[in-house]
Amino acid sequence: MSGPGQDSEPEAKVLLIKRLYRAVVESVHKLDAIIGSKSSYREVFKPENISLRNKLRELCVKLMFLHPVDYGRKAEELLWRKVYYEVIQVIKTNKKVRWQKQLYSCGSVPLVSTQPYTSAD
């Protein structure tokens, strides 16, 4: 009972999986470019980048459920790393840099404010 409809169904599913995987790889490359930029802490929360991460999340979930044996582990790893972990790392890294800049600026305010008094000798 192997008719033409039964043989084409697995091929259609394989093509769908390949298209999904290709879309995942393209999204990952775009996110890598964003994370690699110097102002990544500003870029991460732009609406187009948030929608790109949401798209990647949806594609990874579809890929995990369509073909869990071959692509499930990789899709899950990409999902966590690109959608969640790297964003957290960018925030943590830049939090330290911004905190140091704030400490420097806060520490220099009292010195600047005393300048008129000390330079009027």
TrEMBL record:
Domain of life: Eukaryota
Protein name: Protein smg5
Organism: Xenotaenia resolanae
Organism ancestry: Eukaryota, Metazoa, Chordata, Craniata, Vertebrata
